[in-house]
Amino acid sequence: MSDPRRPLERLRKTFNRHDLDGLADTFSRGAVLVAPDGVGQDRDEIVSYYGAFIEAFPDSRCTPQSVTICGDTLVAEYTLTGTHEGPYLMPGGGVAEATGRSILVRACSVSTVEDDHIVSHRIYYDQLELGAQLGGSLRLAEHERRV
User: Which residues form the SnoaL-like domain (predicted)?
Assistant: First the structure.
């Protein structure tokens, strides 16, 4: 049995380098990603999900806090940091244009590993926390006043 930490560590390193090809290789071809803001049904969709985040936060970094392993399943706590320099899809379908604001988001993921690849990756984070750091709650209030 291979070390289940290895693919998660590759994911972190390739994400931090913004290496989408390397990131793709951490997932099995039929992997599934589930996040508060979307679902990726295969490797291509997962790479697209990460690519959109990196486009919105081109200096984004993932910093692990802890990893817990149970068999082939890993639970990781981490923080995401970055600067909002591109469009970001907000809850409800609106797009937050670049604000230049910095973010620090606490997150957690649950990943299942088979044959040295991630086959299931579930991400949990507070969308309201991220939206508030981008000023999203202010934009929503302004939009509701105009409607």
Answer: 9-121
